[in-house]
Here is the input.
Amino acid sequence: MQVAGTKDQIQRLALTLDPRPEFIRQAVDWDADFILTHHPLTLSPRLPRQRDDLHSVYALLFQSGAALYAAHTSLDVQIHGPAGWLARTLNCSRIRPVHPIQLPAQVWIRLNCSLLPPATLDQLMTHPGCLEWAAADEDCWVLAPEREVGSMLQILSATTSVARVQTMTTLPIQRQHGYGIIGHLPEPVTWSTLADRLSTYLPRPTWSRVGPVPDLIHSVAYCPGSGMDLAAQAFALGADIFISGDLKYHQAQEIESLGLTLDVGHFCLEEMMMSTWTQSLKQELAEQGVEVVFIPGRDPFVLETCTG
Here is the structure.
């Protein structure tokens, strides 16, 4: 959460890639109750002590009462979510992360609601560690990270015997999470064929290319944004091409011998990711009557052809 809102009911949800003043203003003019971005307001904490873009965004949000939430790396690791849009568009199979991460263990706490005062239940359900809760008849279940269970049991011990409370560690989640995505194409294609397809989904006048072009491309790996540090891992997993943004000169020298790398810029992969997420949220929230809109972003780079 970047800025807490003052609206209790969310009827209008706006998505945009960057929390820049021009896009936040469009969301506020649309009367958004909640604004969801990928990039945060700032990558390092700082106060709005001068009249700059950060100050402008705060002013717009405080005046409108809209909330601002940034799903940054939490969105990146969901490879079967919006971040995986390109792999699905290319009909890839065996989709998996380039750099897997292990999710923390979670525990279900089961208790008898009739044994607890309402205030204790409220404490559990509003506890920072409460990921999910459910109730049926007299039973109540609370899902929490393993590290939070101790403090939750401490709350329960004040009003009931902890011996009456059951805890059960959840089964490991099979779906993998992590940074970067790798998948296999339905059939091998030449670089020119893949480039034609990519140009449809990644509209940008120019790309930067590094490394030898393989005869056929079987496996594609990519990481939205500035994920160039994953290139070596991607090639080690068998990728024939790695796609990302923000490739630097010395990085290019280091990975040139590993395989074909394509820098499509930081903007376009993530812009399409947010657009894809908007469509999903429209469908998911339609029954609740929530309006969802995508506010297109802007690539700050202006690409020009040099003549002389």
Observations:
- The chain has a mean pLDDT of 91.
